[in-house]
């Protein structure tokens, strides 16, 4: 157990660092670690699994005069290394976000990018307090770097021009935050951090502004989260799975962040699994060796117990079905059934509503699966099956059973296609979409569906009989019958060859024959448009007996085609075709009101 003398029951706040892929998330964490190490206390900073614990003394050493350690009774900060992507920020702890506080890293030159928007969305949904790190201030033209200094001291060393350019970029970011519904300002101007988001200009490269970031994080945690940091130091441990990993000699292990109580070697734990909660006994608790020993063969050392907040690797049997984002609970002096129910209840909150048909969704963690499901619900895309994990052969088999072609799709967020599923995918009629930006993934799918529908409509349109209304011109009978050849003018619609034509006697349609040719200025054509004059050959009628010069004739539209045109393809046909269709339907419906409905 770590010695919490001055903070008897207060745990370390958990800090998640999120942001767009190349805006400097990793380098910021490295800088914070690096400066902590260079404070000459390599032993003080402990590497956890998936997390870095920086004690208060080290932080106050780095922040210099910005922090008076006696103001704080929190033990320090635990920075979580978000696996792969910020999807981590949707990892949960008891219905809320696992992170107590977040740092949103934004490149000061680049402003908000798709993943920034997405991270903001998640922070808004989970209500997680956050600070914005406006990174890469050192790339401002003419910048004069002040290694590791607080940002205001660094600003004093800049030319007016450099400072003006930086301010312009900073205000751009403040504006983007405001567009996203957050009132924000440079952190030293913020009076109330509960109402306003503080923006900290910094450089992960030169360390400028990093002291300020740590100060703001400590201050925020101390002021607004003290109650939440109060934990039962000796109680049964609770945590969240970060990642499931195979380790040589241990099999499947879970990298876990413990946010309450204590986990001990030998404890019986319940872990959220893909089908059922997993009940198992801890065989080993592993943490990285101290920084100076990291070169040794064995990268982990076994520990007897871990108290919150901490990252630890748990080795235990039967963990291969565990899920990233799932709860971990120590059973200790409670009925096992109760703990299993607790885990089930927590997982049920994340249950995704599935339909009888829809797409297959795979995501890297429960949190991102939940975020995907929310986004798909908003886009009105039904889900057939949603699971955590890489894309396996059975996902392809399930996707293939979808009733509609556009649902034969798999949407994978931040997951891989397993090698044994590659050939299945090639041979299956299933479309795979993968991306690590949720809304990009959904946009790609929606574009695909739109294109598919358009292509379907175009094929349908090719086969559908188009409506037309045309008039036999006076003095334009070139042949009376077998076939009758007359000159006509198309009033509205499209006259297509080989269609049946007829005329209305009152409200009764009478077929007079079938077109066997259309000629325009002596050339054979397949169709004629509204306004054109052409000569047509009609098999069947005799001019002067069945049809007369001056008659208005119509293309006969079969009822099924009229229904498709009116209900599905109305937007795809021209205005004059719509007009011809409407007139045709009106006349037909005077006799039978339900015709073509």
From TrEMBL:
Gene3D superfamilies: P-loop containing nucleotide triphosphate hydrolases, Translation factors, Translation initiation factor IF- 2, domain 3. The keyword Oxidoreductase does not apply. Residues 10-226 form the Tr-type G domain. Keywords: GTP-binding, Initiation factor, Nucleotide-binding, Protein biosynthesis. GO terms for cellular component: cytoplasm. One of its GO terms (molecular function) is GTPase activity. GTP binds at residues 19-26, 81-85, 135-138. This is Probable translation initiation factor IF-2. It comes from Halorubrum aidingense JCM 13560. The lineage of its organism: Archaea, Methanobacteriati, Methanobacteriota, Stenosarchaea group, Halobacteria.
């Amino acid at each position: 157990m770590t010695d919490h003398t001055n903070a008897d029951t207060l745990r370390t706040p958990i800090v998640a660092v999120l942001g767009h892929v190349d805006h400097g998330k990793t380098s910021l964490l490295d800088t914070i670690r690096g400066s902590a190490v260079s404070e000459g206390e390599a032993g003080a900073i402990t590497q956890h699994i998936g997390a870095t614990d920086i004690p208060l003394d080290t932080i106050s050493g780095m922040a210099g005069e910005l922090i008076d350690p006696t103001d704080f009774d929190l033990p320090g900060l635990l920075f979580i290394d978000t696996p792969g992507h910020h999807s981590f920020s949707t990892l949960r702890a008891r219905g809320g976000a696992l992170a107590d506080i977040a740092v949103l890293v934004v490149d000061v030159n680049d402003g908000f990018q798709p993943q920034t928007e997405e991270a903001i969305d998640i922070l808004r949904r989970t209500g997680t307090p956050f600070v914005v790190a406006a990174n890469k201030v050192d790339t401002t033209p003419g910048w004069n770097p002040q290694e590791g200094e607080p940002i205001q001291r660094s600003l004093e060393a800049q030319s007016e021009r450099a400072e003006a350019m930086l301010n312009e970029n900073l205000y751009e970011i403040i504006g983007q935050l405001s567009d996203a519904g957050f009132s924000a300002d440079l952190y030293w101007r913020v009076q109330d951090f509960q109402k306003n988001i503080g923006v900290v200009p910094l450089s992960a490269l030169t360390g400028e502004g990093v002291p300020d970031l740590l100060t703001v994080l400590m201050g925020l945690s101390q002021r607004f989260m003290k109650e939440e940091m109060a934990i039962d130091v000796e109680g049964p441990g609770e945590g969240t799975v970060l990642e499931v990993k195979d380790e040589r000699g241990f099999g499947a292990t879970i990298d876990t962040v413990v946010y309450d109580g204590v986990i001990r070697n030998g404890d019986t734990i319940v872990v959220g699994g893909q089908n059922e909660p997993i009940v198992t006994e801890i065989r080993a608790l592993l943490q990285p060796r101290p920084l100076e020993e990291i070169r040794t063969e064995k990268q982990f050392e076994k520990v007897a117990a871990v108290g919150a907040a901490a990252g630890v690797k748990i080795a235990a049997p039967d963990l291969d079905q565990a899920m990233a984002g799932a709860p971990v609970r120590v059973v200790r002096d409670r009925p096992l059934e109760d703990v299993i129910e607790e885990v089930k209840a927590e997982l049920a909150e994340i249950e995704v509503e599935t339909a009888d048909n829809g797409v297959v969704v795979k995501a890297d963690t429960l949190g991102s699966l939940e975020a995907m499901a929310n986004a798909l619900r908003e886009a009105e895309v039904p889900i057939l099956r949603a699971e955590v994990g890489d894309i396996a052969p059975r996902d392809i088999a399930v996707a293939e059973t979808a009733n509609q072609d556009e649902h034969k799709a798999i949407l994978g967020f931040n997951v891989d296609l397993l090698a044994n599923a590659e050939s299945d995918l090639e041979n299956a009629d299933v479309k795979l979409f993968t991306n690590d930006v949720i809304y990009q993934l959904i946009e790609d799918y929606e574009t695909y569906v739109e294109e598919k529908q358009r292509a379907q409509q175009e094929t349908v349109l090719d086969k559908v009989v188009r409506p037309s209304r045309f008039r036999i011109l006076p003095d334009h009978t070139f042949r009376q019958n077998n076939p009758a050849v007359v000159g006509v003018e198309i009033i509205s619609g499209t006259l297509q060859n080989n269609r049946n034509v007829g005329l209305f006697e009152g409200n009764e349609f009478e077929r007079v024959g079938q077109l066997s040719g259309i000629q325009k200025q002596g050339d054979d054509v397949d169709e004629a448009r509204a306004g054109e004059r052409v000569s047509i050959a009609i098999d069947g009628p005799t001019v002067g007996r069945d049809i007369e010069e001056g008659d208005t004739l119509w293309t006969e539209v079969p009822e099924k085609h009229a229904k498709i045109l009116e209900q599905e393809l109305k937007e795809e046909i021209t205005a004059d075709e719509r007009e011809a269709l409407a007139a045709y339907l009106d006349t037909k419906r005077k006799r039978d009101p339900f015709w073509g409905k």
